[in-house]
Specification:
By secondary structure, the protein is α/β, with parallel strands linked by helices. It folds into two domains: 2-80, Rossmann fold (3-Layer(aba) Sandwich), CATH 3.40.50; 82-194, UDP N-Acetylglucosamine Acyltransferase, domain 1, CATH 2.160.10.10. It contains two helices and 24 strands. It has helices at residues 9-20, 63-75, and strands at residues 2-5, 25-29, 35-37, 40-43, 55-58, 79-80, 83-84, 89-90, 95-96, 101-102, 107-108, 113-114, 119-120, 125-126, 131-132, 137-138, 143-144, 149-150, 155-156, 161-162, 167-168, 173-174, 179-180, 189-190. Strands 7-10-13-16-19-22-24 form a seven-stranded parallel β-sheet, covered by helices on one side. The chain has a six-stranded mixed β-sheet with strand order 3-4-2-1-5-6, sandwiched between helices. The chain has a six-stranded parallel β-sheet with strand order 8-11-14-17-20-23, with no helix packed on it. A hairpin with a 2-residue loop joins β3 (35-37) and β4 (40-43). The longest helix is centred in the middle third of the chain and has 13 residues, at 63-75.
């Protein structure tokens, strides 16, 4: 049984990804409880925090919040579960960390490394020999070219492209629909805000 923490739109994507894998979801966890989502109850997180060795996925789009939740719940003995849609492509030599989401149409190329708690959204491509740091969110149809090194907790906007062999620092935000032609430092935004 798997719990999904987060009962919003992202939680629905995670639910359908897990069910497409043949997995059974126990319930959604959310502070806004006492309702149903996808036919399952939404309960408050404290109801399952003491359940040792339960599997959980954090369906939270915000990288920092997802990191904080997954880290604290792991310390309680909960096991982060990765959701990998059957219509995603994960090359045999690629590796992914705990608690990741690979949605339908996503592609993870040969020898790519995806850190823990990452979201690789619909039709996003992470090419060969790329390293994605922990708790990054690669939005819909974004392309991370070969050999890129992306730091922790980065957000790559929908339809954006990072050119090959670049180094992107940690906590970087990349806008939707842009092409990144050069390295970016930690905590930067591209394009820069005026």
């Amino acid at each position: 049984m798997i719990y999904i923490y987060g009962a919003g739109g992202h939680g629905k994507v995670v639910f359908h990804t897990f069910t497409s894998m043949g997995k059974t979801i126990a319930a959604f966890l959310d502070d806004k409880a006492n309702r149903f989502l996808c036919g399952l109850p939404v309960i408050i997180p404290s109801e399952v925090q003491a359940s040792p060795a339960s599997h959980i996925h954090f369906a939270i789009g915000n990288n920092r919040i997802r990191h904080d939740l997954q880290t604290s719940w792991q310390q309680l003995g909960m096991i982060p579960a990765s959701a990998i849609h059957p219509l995603s492509i994960l090359y045999p030599s690629a590796t992914i960390g705990h608690g990741c989401l690979l949605t339908a149409g996503s592609v993870i190329g040969p020898d790519a490394v995806i850190g823990s708690g990452c979201i690789i959204n619909h039709n996003a491509v992470v090419e060969h020999d790329t390293h994605i740091g922990d708790f990054c969110h690669i939005a819909q149809s974004a392309i991370i070219s070969g050999g890129v090194n992306l730091g922790t907790q980065c957000f790559v906007g929908a339809g954006s492209v990072i050119l090959p062999y670049l180094t992107i620092g940690k906590h970087v935000t990349i806008a939707a629909g842009v092409t990144v032609p050069h390295n970016l430092p930690d905590y930067s935004t591209f394009p820069p805000r005026m």
